[in-house]
Amino acid sequence: MAAVDSRAETLTPPRGRRTRRYQWPSQVGAAIRTPRGATGLALTLLVAAIAVGGPFLAPYSPDALLTKPFAAPAGQFLLGGDSLGRDVLSRVLTGGWLLLIMALAATAIGVAAGAAAGVSAAYLRGRTDGLIMRTVDVILAFPQLVFALLLLSLLGPKLWLITLAVGITHAPAVARVVRSATLDISEREYVKVAELQGMRPAAVMAKEILPSLTTPLMVEAGLRLTYSIIIISGLAFLGFGQPPPAPNWGTMINENLSGLPANPWAVIVPAAVIALLTIGVNTLTDAIGRVAMGVDRQPEEAALIDDLGLPDGSTT
Questions:
Q1: Cα separations (Å) of 146 from 7, 127, 231?
Q2: Please, what is the end-to-end C-alpha distance for the chain in angstroms?
Q3: pLDDT digit string, tens, across residues 135-180
Q4: Are residues 237 and 114 in the same domain?
């Protein structure tokens, strides 16, 4: 809990400053100009291009039986065959787009639900705060993968339900970070002025508090996307995903493990693209967070901010 609060405090603008509503484009731009951010963006775009454009570039149908099971790479089959003799390259190229869509959707669900819960708990306080945070504590008591498996075992392994279950597992962690940041922001002058003007609590939260949470929400979204990729791939590995024979990077690792000595590429390549996507997203997110905290600012950017008296791109 202390680590979460510390991260939220470093990503929260100093007291008395009002965060600019659309500061995130400048922060992202500054982040991708750093070596860390450029590397993360390059890896992320590379794997995203494979996932999105791969189905149009696959040389064969991903379900066609074309060679011997676990055939070694040779000739027209650059990565060899899988457990049933299907072309590994074609299945890798067509097996990532749904994973990417599900991960993005789960991240959006988790961040939206967590932000709503965290802001409501911190601003409304009292019984609302207690009810929300006790619910958060109960969900956090379960490991994310275990909680997702619990929901799927109760309701069935449907793709939309997998996405929803993974999104729900993200919401508590986001809620804690957002609540910690909101406790500080809700005491600032511009929020108090809005309250004195008779603005309703929902409007204060939406128009005054949420715009000041852009940075922590952006960083949390990147972190949750990383976890979504890992959890959804892990669920596919365990058999909770697209039903066979549909290609899926997580499923490919499981179904080809028995042929690892004969054709290791059937396992190594899908595992590698999952790892590269996870590393890329996490590295890019880390770069954005470092820029937001002022760790990786360019000297000229820091000097300009100091001259203007504006912390982290904020304005009065």
A1: 26, 29, 10
A2: 31
A3: 998 888 888 888 888 888 777 778 888 899 899 989 999 999 999 8
A4: yes
The 3 state secondary structure assigned to 144-189 is HHHHHHHHHHHHCCCHHHHHHHHHHHHHHHHHHHHHHHHHHHCCCH
- The boundaries of the domain holding residue 82 are 47-96+247-306
Domain check: are 63 and 119 in the same one?
no
Residue 82 has, within 13 A of its CA and on its CB side, a CA count of 28
* Residue entry with tokens 């979204």: 221
Q: Is-contact 290 28, C-beta < 8 A? A: no
The two tokens of residue 302 are 């820091």
CB-side neighbour CA atoms (13 Å) of 75: 6
Q: What is the pLDDT of residues 266-302, one digit of tens each?
A: 999 999 999 999 999 999 988 888 887 766 555 444 4
Examine the domain organization and report whether 190 and 278 are in the same domain: no
- DSSP codes joined into one string, 47-93: HHHHHHHHHHH-SS-TT---S-TTPPSBTTBTT-B-TTS-BHHHHHH
Give the number of domains in the chain: 2
Enumerate residues 6+ apart whose C-beta is below 8 A from 89.
58, 59, 77, 78, 79
pLDDT tens digits for range 43-92:
999 999 999 999 999 999 999 998 899 999 988 889 999 989 999 999 99
The pTM assigned to this predicted structure is 0.82
Kindly indicate the confidence band of residue 14, based on its pLDDT and cuts at 50, 70 and 90. Answer: very low
CATH (domain of 212)? 1.10.3720.10
Partners of 315 in the beta sheet?
18
List the one residue out of 290, 63, 248, 73 whose CA is nearest residue 162.
Answer: 248
Give yes or no for a contact between 195 and 133, defined as CB atoms under 8 angstroms apart: no
For residue 30, is it within any domain?
no
Give the C-alpha separation, 103 to 248, whole Å: 13
